[in-house]
């Protein structure tokens, strides 16, 4: 059973083995850890409309409260 089916996710998941999408969304960043530089992924959320336009971008997100922030934004979009 794949991940999407296992967790009954109602949305598509993306696999990006070449990093092409990471680069196009600008989320592949140089990070420093223990004094060493390495490429890493900036934790980000992109809210994308059905017509594939980007409605909102959240960069450097923190886990605490982020889901609630997204839900509030989506409710505002739905009401407008």
From TrEMBL:
Listed CDD domains: PRX_BCP
Keywords: Antioxidant, Disulfide bond, Oxidoreductase, Peroxidase, Redox-active center
GO cellular component terms, A-Z: cytoplasm
Any GO BP annotation: cell redox homeostasis
Domain of life: Bacteria
Residues in Alkyl hydroperoxide reductase subunit C/ Thiol specific antioxidant domain copies: 2-55
Gene Ontology molecular functions: thioredoxin peroxidase activity
Matches recorded under Pfam families: AhpC-TSA
Main function: Thiol-specific peroxidase that catalyzes the reduction of hydrogen peroxide and organic hydroperoxides to water and alcohols, respectively. Plays a role in cell protection against oxidative stress by detoxifying peroxides and as sensor of hydrogen peroxide-mediated signaling events.
UniProt protein name: Bacterioferritin comigratory protein
Source organism (scientific name): Carboxydothermus islandicus
């Amino acid at each position: 059973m794949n991940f999407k089916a296992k967790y009954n996710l109602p949305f598509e998941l993306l696999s990006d083995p070449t990093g092409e999408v990471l680069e196009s969304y600008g989320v592949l960043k140089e990070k420093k850890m223990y004094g060493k530089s390495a490429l890493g992924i900036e934790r980000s959320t992109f809210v994308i409309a059905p017509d594939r336009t980007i409605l909102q971008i959240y960069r450097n997100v923190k886990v605490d409260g982020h889901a609630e922030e997204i839900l509030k934004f989506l409710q505002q979009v739905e009401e407008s």
